Amino acid sequence: MRSPFFRWLLLPLLALVILTTGAFLYAPYLPTLLAEGFPKPEWPARGTFAELPGIAGADDLGEPEQTRLSPALAKLMADSRGKALLVYQGGKLKIEYYAPGFSRDTRFNSYSLVKSLVGVLTLSAITRGELPALDTPLPKLGLAPRELLDMKSGIVFETDEMKHASGQPEKDLEATISNPFGPMARLHVSGLKDFEPALHIDPTKRGLFSYQNVNTALLGALLGAPDQRLSREIWQPAGAQGATWRRYGPDLDISAYCCLYAKARDWVHAARYVMNNGTPSQPLLSAEFHQAFLGRDLTDDQVRQGLYRLHAWHNILDRPGEALQGQFTYFMGNGGQAVYLMPEKDLIVVRFGAEPQLLHSTLYEAWKQISGR
Fold first, then answer.
1. Is the residue at 327 inside a domain?
2. Which residues contact 180 (CB under 8 A, 6 or more apart)?
3. Are residues 79 and 14 in the same domain?
4. What angle (nearest 5°) sits at the alpha carbon of residue 304, between those of residues 302 and 308?
5. What mean pLDDT do residues 116-123 have?
6. pLDDT in tens, 156-181
């Protein structure tokens, strides 16, 4: 006859087995999620990846003019646990700074920076006639590419309370995979195959901005092999070196919304190529799409509070007394990864770190340092 102690010990163990079994039956992707964890901020990382071919030895940025930061820039980086800051202007690499423990060989996780490149690739595919026109409904969901690019699809996926990963709860940003039973965790491990048949649109939310990773996942599926497209259309012609992009599993799709591991210098190459629209002999986008992606048709009032369009963010520098003024376009990723583009100033700023950094102040202070003010 078993002792009461044995019975009291057996009951919790039995309950744990039942709960664990139920969890794995409800979420069979959990073992993969537990093994991979939250995407690591630097390479190497756990999971399955596709190699993104680049051009070895093609780096033409040269040595930077400065490797130290001004006191103001240094404080911005320290306050946000910044890891890398590169400033390219007027055809020259003006600043290349890495915090201790990081270098130009570090491959940083893009997080959602890569979404903006997926946006460019989508516009390129439309330009080439490989996807329907920007406002032509696609099969199945009946959404137009513009609705996915502008995050205005109305797709019911991540609820508002699941989002705000940036620590800025007033903003509509991406969800994380911290909830192992949430839709983002399921998407991040399994891809669209478990979701696409059941995705539906809320007519009351269609046309309203809501930052949903699933929009980019759908664009990646439309593009087909976005890693090959990125390498062929932007990464290699830009002169960037090899990178690594996360995929859902062996022989499965790329997680188009996240996790391209690349060097900070290669983001300068890619940003310059996008900002210049490829080369004069081989433009990346039509002139109309290129101007729209960079927000050249937007008014100051439209961007003053921040605007998301065609998978890129837009804002304006208008602080009185500052030497640098005007609109800018930027890519943004979880933790404050950022790539700034100001074509009129031939200015590119690439920043990687652990927390968001003050958006406008970064540009103001970078400009002051390179202009000697």
1. yes
2. 27, 30, 33, 34
3. no
4. 65
5. 98
6. 887 665 554 444 434 555 566 667 77
